[in-house]
């Protein structure tokens, strides 16, 4: 069984920064070989893919966060990260970590408000 636990969400003022973490565990899970994705869902909106990082380090970003966010991973710690800067109210959502083939965390809430 694979378990993903996100953390790092919270309340931040517009223009602020947060670093989300996604810790993976599971006796047979090979974190280093998985593609990692960060998704978000805001109230009343569809789930949005924010960023991905493949096992070879290739990254993709949605236009909504490109230039403001950085996805990274530490395979030795089985942990992934999403650094978000210059946060806007539109970034407020529950952020979920996903690892292939289809493992999901419970989400962490990000609120952007003054």
In words, what does this structure look like?
By secondary structure, the protein is an all-beta fold. About 0% of the residues lie in helices and about 50% in strands. The chain is built from no helices and 11 strands. The chain has strands at about 5, 10, 20-25, 35-40, 50-55, 60, 70-75, 80-85, 95-100, 105, 110. Strands 2, 4, 5, 6, 9, 10 and 11 form a 7-stranded mixed beta sheet that branches. The protein has a 4-stranded antiparallel beta sheet with strand order 1-3-8-7, with no helix packed on it. Strand 5 (about 50-55) and strand 6 form a beta hairpin. The chain is globular and about 45 Å long. The model has no long low-confidence stretch (mean pLDDT about 95).
Task: Provide tags for this entry.
mainly beta, four-stranded antiparallel beta sheet, seven-stranded mixed beta sheet, 11 strands, single chain, 114 residues
Could you give a quick summary of the protein structure above?
Strand 4 (36-41) and strand 5 (48-53) form a beta hairpin. The strands form two sheets. Strands 2, 4, 5, 6, 9, 10 and 11 form a seven-stranded mixed β-sheet that branches. The chain has a four-stranded antiparallel β-sheet with strand order 1-3-8-7, with no helix packed on it.
Question: Helix and strand layout, with pairings?
Answer:
Layout: E1 3-7, E2 10-12, E3 18-25, E4 36-41, E5 48-53, E6 59-61, E7 69-74, E8 79-84, E9 93-99, E10 103-104, E11 108-112
Parallel strand pairs: 2-11
Antiparallel strand pairs: 1-3, 3-8, 4-5, 4-9, 5-6, 7-8, 9-10, 9-11
């Amino acid at each position: 069984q694979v378990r993903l636990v996100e953390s790092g969400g919270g309340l931040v003022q517009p223009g602020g920064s947060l670093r989300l973490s996604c810790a993976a565990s599971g006796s047979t899970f090979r974190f280093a070989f998985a593609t990692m994705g960060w998704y978000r869902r805001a109230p009343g909106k569809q789930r949005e893919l924010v960023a991905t990082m493949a096992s070879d380090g290739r990254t993709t970003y949605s236009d909504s966060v490109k230039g403001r966010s950085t996805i990274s991973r530490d395979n030795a710690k089985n942990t992934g990260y999403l650094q978000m800067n210059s946060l806007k109210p539109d970034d407020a959502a529950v952020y979920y970590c996903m690892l292939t083939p289809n493992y999901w965390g419970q989400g962490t809430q990000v609120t952007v408000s003054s």
